[in-house]
Design a protein that fits this description.
alpha+beta, 13-stranded mixed beta sheet, 32% helix, globular, 17 helices, two-stranded antiparallel ribbon, 492 residues
Length: 492
C-alpha cells in the first residue's frame, strides 16, 4: 500500500486495532500491534520483522521480542477476531472454508519444518505446513484461525520441540483433527456457517465427515475419484456370519453376501446407468475476480462405504466437469437434506477457491510466508497478526467499493450472487421448466423482480447471473477479466 493510500486510513486503523487492546497486559506490548499491522499493510518488499521495525524507526530486536517473548494473549486475539466476524459479517449463505497452506523454509530450526508435500510449489520440499479455517459470505472473506501442523518425527523428538518453544501439549495430530478443533473454537465464539467446504485431503476422512455431521453441520466435500459406494441402497444385515457362531452378535449392519459390491465413483460415472445415462446439466457462475465459470454436473444419491466396510448414510453425490478445461473433473459428496438442490451444492463446493485467494493475498501482500523466527509462539502470533491485518484490509476494501460489511442480508454491490441466482440450463439448450421436471435438484433461476418485492439475496441492478443457451456456451464463455490489481494497490 502506498503511503498516501494508507495515510487516510490511519484513524480507522487505530480504532480497529484498539479493539484488541485487552489482549495485552502492558502499554509496551500493546503499542507494537499497530506497528506490525502498518508494516504488513505497507509497500515493503519484504514484510519480516527487520524491515517492518526499520521502517518504523525501531530496533529489530524490539519486534522480535514482541513476537516471541513479551507477554500477551494471541488466543484472546483470535477469539476477538472471531467475535467481530460473528457480530458484523454474519448472514445467510455463509460458508466455512478449511484448507492448508505451506511455506518453503531452509534449515531445520523453524518449528514443524521438514521435507513434506508443499502445495505452494506442487512438490515435496523442506517446508512448514499450517491448517486454516476461513469464512466467506457474498464478496467478503477472511481467515479465522491458523495452526501449525506438527509432523510425527517432530513429536517424537521432544528435546527438539523444547528448543523451538513447542509446548508439551502440542503434539502430532492429523490435519483433519486440527481443522475440527478450529471449527469447534469458531462455533464457541459465535461464528455460524450455513455450509462448510474443503478439498479431498479432508473429504476422504470418514471420521472428519462423521464429526461434522454429528455437530449438525452441513458440508460439501470434494472427494477422490476412487471413493467407493453404491447408487442403489444395498441390502444389509446384522445376522451372524454363520449359524451357531460364538461371540457377540454383530451390531453394525453389513452388506448381505452376494450383493453388488461397492464401486468407485469414476467407474459408476461411466458404467452405472443412473450416472452414465443422465444428461449433464449446465451451470454458469459469475465471480467478480475470476469472471464467468461454466460447469456441467450430474447428481445422484450415494451410499458410501464407511469404516470397516459398513454402509454409510445416504449422501448427495455430484460429478462436475468444467466446460472448457478438458479433463477437469470433480467429485463432491454432501450430507445436506434431500431438498437442497444440486445447484446449491455445486455453488458451495466451488466456493473453496475463496480460501486460496485468502492465502494468495496474505502471502503476496501481507507477508504471511515471510516469518523468519525459530519459535513456535512467534510463528503462531505471526499467523494471528496476519489474520488481523487481513480482516482490516477486507473491511476497508468492502467499504471503499460501496459495500456494507454484510449485516443486512442483501447481495453485495459488487455483483456477488447467491446459489439460487446462477443460471441453470439443460444440455439441449432449453431452460429447465420446473413444472415438467421431476428431479428435485433442478430448480429454476429466481424470478427477476424489482423494487420492494425483490426477494432477499438478489440485486437486479447489479447481478451478473444470466441464462444462456447451452449450444452457444463456448461463445458466451470467456476466461474473465485479467487478474485484478492486488488489494494494497487499489488506492484504498
Amino acid at each position: 500500500m502506498e503511503a498516501q493510500s494508507l495515510r487516510p486510513l490511519l484513524p480507522e486503523l487505530d480504532r480497529f486495532v484498539g479493539r484488541f487492546d485487552d489482549c495485552f497486559v502492558d502499554r509496551r506490548s500493546r503499542e507494537h500491534l499497530p506497528v506490525y499491522v502498518r508494516g504488513q499493510l505497507s509497500d515493503l518488499d519484504r514484510k519480516s520483522v527487520e524491515p517492518i521495525a526499520l521502517k518504523a524507526g525501531l530496533a529489530p530486536r524490539t519486534l522480535q521480542e514482541f513476537l516471541s517473548l513479551l507477554s500477551w494473549d494471541e488466543a484472546k486475539m483470535r477469539d476477538r477476531l472471531q467475535h467481530i466476524v460473528a457480530a458484523e459479517h454474519a448472514g445467510p449463505n455463509s460458508i466455512g472454508l478449511i484448507d492448508e497452506t505451506s511455506f518453503v523454509k531452509k534449515g531445520t530450526k523453524t518449528p514443524g519444518v521438514q521435507r513434506q508435500w508443499c502445495g505452494h510449489i506442487g512438490k515435496v520440499e523442506n517446508c512448514v505446513v499450517t491448517v486454516h479455517l476461513g469464512y466467506a459470505r457474498d464478496s467478503f472473506q477472511c481467515l479465522l484461525d491458523g495452526e501449525l501442523f506438527l509432523p510425527e518425527n517432530w513429536d517424537e523428538d521432544r528435546p527438539r520441540c523444547r528448543d523451538a518453544g513447542i509446548p508439551e501439549d502440542v503434539v502430532y495430530r492429523p490435519k483433519w483433527q486440527i481443522a475440527l478443533g478450529q471449527y469447534d473454537r469458531a462455533i464457541a465464539n459465535g461464528v455460524r456457517f450455513d455450509w462448510l467446504t474443503f478439498d479431498e485431503g479432508y473429504g476422504d476422512k470418514p471420521e472428519f465427515l462423521a464429526g461434522l455431521s454429528a455437530r449438525g453441520q452441513k458440508w460439501v466435500a470434494e472427494v477422490p475419484k476412487d471413493t467407493c459406494g453404491w447408487l442403489n441402497e444395498p441390502r444389509v444385515t446384522t445376522r451372524p456370519r454363520r449359524r451357531g457362531g460364538r461371540g457377540r452378535r454383530p451390531t453394525k449392519p453389513r452388506v448381505v453376501k452376494g450383493s453388488t459390491p461397492a464401486r468407485r465413483l469414476d467407474l459408476l460415472l461411466t458404467r452405472h446407468p443412473q450416472l452414465r445415462d443422465q444428461p449433464w446439466t449446465l451451470y454458469r457462475f459469475d465471480e467478480r475476480e475470476q469472471g464467468p465459470s461454466v460447469w456441467e454436473a450430474k447428481h445422484v444419491t450415494f451410499w458410501p462405504t464407511a469404516c470397516e466396510g459398513v454402509v454409510g448414510e445416504p449422501l448427495h453425490a455430484l460429478v462436475a466437469r468444467h466446460v472448457l478445461r478438458e479433463g477437469e473433473l470433480k467429485f463432491f459428496l454432501s450430507n445436506a437434506p434431500a431438498e437442497d438442490s444440486a445447484q446449491t451444492l455445486l455453488w458451495v463446493g466451488l466456493t473453496r477457491h475463496r480460501v486460496e485467494r485468502c492465502f494468495q493475498d496474505q502471502k503476496s501482500e501481507l507477508g504471511l510466508d515471510h516469518y523468519e523466527g525459530r519459535t513456535y509462539r512467534g510463528l503462531i502470533r505471526h499467523l494471528m497478526l496476519t489474520c488481523v491485518s487481513y480482516l482490516f484490509l477486507m473491511r476497508a476494501t468492502e467499504r471503499r467499493r460501496g459495500e456494507k460489511p454484510g449485516m443486512d442480508g442483501t447481495t453485495s454491490a459488487s455483483g456477488g450472487c447467491s446459489p439460487d441466482h446462477h443460471a441453470l440450463v439443460q444440455r439441449t439448450g432449453s431452460p429447465i421448466a420446473p413444472e415438467t421436471t421431476g428431479r428435485r435438484d433442478r430448480v429454476p433461476p429466481a424470478p427477476q423482480r424489482a423494487g420492494p418485492q425483490m426477494p432477499r439475496q438478489t440485486h437486479e441492478k447489479t447481478s451478473t447471473c444470466q441464462r444462456h443457451p447451452a449450444e452457444t456456451r463456448n461463445a458466451m464463455y470467456s476466461p474473465g477479466p485479467a487478474p485484478t490489481k492486488p488489494l494494497l494497490q487499489q488506492g484504498l
